[in-house]
Amino acid sequence: QNEIYRAGVHGRTPSVPTDFATLEKRAKAKMSARGWAYIAGGAGEGRTMAANRAALDRWAIVPRMLRDTSDRNLEIELFGQTLPAPVLFSPVGAGALAHDRADIHIGHAAAELGLPYIFSNQGCAPMEDVAAEMDSVSRGAPRWFQLYWSTDDRLVRSLVSRAEQSGAAAIAVTLDTTMLGWRPQDLNLGSLPFARAEGIDQYTSDPSFWEIVAERLKDAVSEKPEVSIGAIKTLFSIAKNVPGDIRRNLTAPEPRAAVETFLDIYSRPTLSWTDIVTLRDMTSLPIVLKGVLHPDDARKAVDVGVDGIIVSNHGGRQVDGSISSADALVDVADAVEGRVKVLVDSGFYTGADVFKALALGADAVCIGRPHMYGLALAGAAGARDAVANIVAELDLTLGLSGQTDVRTLDRSVLKKV
Ligand code: FNR
């Protein structure tokens, strides 16, 4: 990790800024207004995003001195895989807003670092293509799949089985996005990503998606022809991988209705614990629930037999005024008592932030926006370096705090201020 630090000492400029504030500022200058609104934006007035920062700042690291920390361990074991650091790439949909080949580049970046990339269900490339790219860097490079539970179980089964075939080491089910949150920055621009089909390739590369759409097309004809047919046709016309027989009938663009049609399929508002039990029977892969914030939900997750939890408020993008990720992490880690793996994301942007998360009870930390900003600035190398910088700072923070192993950090290294 110290290579980055030493390069700086020798006057080499890094591919992306090494602090989050500058990284964010440069990415903003580079990105389109639409891309910036979607990627940087939060829900409502941005209070959850602010809370994520504030809660982390209420914990201070208390370094210990005169300890030999020259030999440090950052490695962890997670679901049978050894990772070089306790860090993962959060699933991020609609990445094409930052870069044309977003998912392919991020997969490449993650594989170079040996850290898992969680493929988004709203990826801009089919997971098979991303997996192949990762394998070309390093065979079997770790990857997971993130699932949005569709209103149609056929699609869920198909996606899960594709993930298994693509070498996913776990399935992360996102619980907090049964509907999209109130996103003023997108709404004010009149833009949501799906309006231009960013983030639907994972679906449109799936045969069962087209089976479901074809059925809905039939229903639409009898129920509400003027709106529904236009909507579905538009969805087809903007999507890649449209089967030929359907493509022949395309006309009338009507983006708003198309978005609605897509939203109708992508996520299930009635999602319940029963569905998680169903998933347990559907796959032998470890199941991780993403978006858990309440300790009772965490206990329930343990009871239904999941393997891990990602404490997350979706980067402050779903419920404005929600509990911060760090505060929820404390509650969840205490409730779970080590029975399942606890990961966290939402607002962890530096090595010190990751250090605090581990000390508060996380086994690993997922990083979202930093890798997207790196991607926007410098493609695969930028996504890689944005995360490599965080890992390098984690390593220094560990040693300078008098600690030698990420696995043994606990709350005794912190003080609430
Ligand atoms: C996300 N997130 C997300 N989560 C998920 O489960 N599936 C998805 O498709 C997406 N898409 C997505 C797009 C964009 C642009 C962002 C910024 C976030 C949430 C993501 O996985 C993660 O929870 C947060 O990004 C973590 O917070 P930070 O690190 O961005 O603050």
TrEMBL record:
Keywords: Oxidoreductase
Domain named FMN hydroxy acid dehydrogenase: residues: 12-417
Cofactors, names only: FMN
Gene3D superfamilies registered for this protein in UniProt: Aldolase class I (3.20.20.70)
PROSITE patterns: FMN_HYDROXY_ACID_DH_1, FMN_HYDROXY_ACID_DH_2
Family: Belongs to the FMN-dependent alpha-hydroxy acid dehydrogenase family.
Protein name: Alpha-hydroxy-acid oxidizing protein
Organism: Gordonia liuliyuniae
Taxonomic lineage of the native organism: Bacteria, Bacillati, Actinomycetota, Actinomycetes, Mycobacteriales
